[in-house]
Amino acid sequence: MTLLTSRRLGLLREHDFRQLWTADLISQLGTRTALLAMPLLAVVTLHASTFETALLTAAGTAGSLLFGLPAGAWLDRIRSRPVLIVTDLARTCLLLSIPVASLLGAVSMPQLYAVAFVASVCTVFFNIGQMTYVARLLRPERLVEANTKLASNASVAAVAGSAVGGWVVQVLTAPIAIAVDALSYLLSALGLVRIRAAEPPIEPPIEPPIEPPIEPAPRHLGREIADGLRFVGGHPVLRALGLNIAIWVLFQGADNGIMIVFLVREVHLNAATIGLLGTIGLIGALLATAATGRITARIGEARTILLAGFVAAAAFLCYPLTGPGWSLGWFVLAGFLAAFAIVASNIVQTSYRQRLTPAHLQGRAGSVMTMLSWGMLPAGSVLGGAVASLLDLRTTLFVNGVGVALSVLPLLLSPLRSAATKASVDHE
Fold first, then answer.
1. pTM for the complete prediction?
2. 12-194+222-427 adopts what CATH topology?
3. 65 and 371 in contact (C-beta within 8 Å)?
4. pLDDT digits over 154-202, tens only?
5. H-run or E-run covering 396
6. CB-based contacts of 124: which residues, under 8 Å, 6+ apart?
7. Whose CB has fewer CB within 10 Å in the chain, the N or C terminal residue?
C-alpha cells in the first residue's frame, strides 16, 4: 500500500472502524432505497391525502421528539454497541411486516403509521448510540475524520439509493423496496457483531474528594437529562447551533412532509424520475464530504457553519420554482445546494460538539442536538401538511424556504459571527 493510499484510507485501515463504517454504509443504502417507498405506497396505492402523507412522514421521525433526551441519558450509562445491534434487528422485523402484509392484501395506513413510528424510536437509539460509540472509541483529534467518513456514507447512499430506490419502486413495487431496507439493517447488525475491540467501560465524572466522605447520590434519569440541557443551553455557541438546527429542520420537515405529494400531483412525475432527480441533486452531498475539510481549513469552522446556513436558505427558496420540463432544473439545483449545506454543517457541528463535550456528557449532549434536529422533523411534517391543506403546495414550499432562511439569525447573533477559527470559537 502506497503512502498516498494509506493517507486516503485513514481510519478505514483499522478493522473495527472499517466494520462500523461498512455496517453504516449498508444501512444507509437500504434506508435511501426505501425512502420513496413509504410515502409512494401511501399516495399511489392507498390514495392517502396530503395531510395523511404528512402524518406518515411525521411518524417516521417522531421518535426523536419523544425519546431523544432520555435516550441520550440512558446511553451515557451503558455500552453502546449492543444497543446498535438490537435496534438494527428490531428495524429488520418491523419493516418486513409491510411486504408480508402486502402479499396478504392487508397493508393499511394504520400499519404504516405504526411501523414508521416504532422504527423511528429504534433509529433514535441507534443514531445517538453511534455518535456516543465513536466518541468513546477514538481520540478527539480523529473525530473529524471519523465523522467525515460516516457522513460520506450518507452522501453515497443518497446518490445511489435515490436512483435505485426509484427504480425498485417503479419496477418491483414499494413493498419490495421496503424489504430491501429490512435486509440492509440485518447486514448492518452482522457487521457490528464483527467488531473486535471491547467498548471502554463507562466511567462517572471525576470529582474532588469530599471530607468526610459521603455516600454518592443515586443516579436519576430526569436530573441527568437536565444536566445535558443545561450544558448545551449554557454554552453560547452550542445554544446558537441548537436554535439554528431546530428552526432549519422544522421547515425542512415541512418540505419533506409534502414534497412527494407535490412531485406526484403537481409536477406529475413517476417514482423512477423522482429518484433520478434526487440522485442528481444529492451529488452535492458527495462534494460536501470531499470539500468540507478543505473549506474548514481555509476559512475556519465558524465561517463554514455560517456559509452552510446561507447556502441552505438559497436552496430551499429554489424548491417552489420547480415545474414540468426545464423548470425541473430548479429542483436539481435546490437538492444539490441543500445536500451540500446539510452535510457540511453536520460534519463541522458534530465534530465541534464532540470535542467540546466532556466524556460523561457525550450521550446527553448528542441527544439534545438530536432532539433539536430529528425531533423537529415530525413537527415540521405536520406543520407542512396543515399549511398545505389551507394554502396550495407551491405556496407552502415558499413559506418553508423563508423559514429555513430565518434559521441563520441565531448564528448571526452568536459568537460565531466574529469567530474565524476553531480556536476563537473555543475561546468564546
1. 0.67
2. Growth Hormone; Chain: A; (1.20.1250)
3. yes
4. 767 766 666 677 777 777 788 888 888 889 899 989 988 888 777 666 6
5. helix 393-406
6. 63, 64, 67, 68, 71, 370, 374
7. N
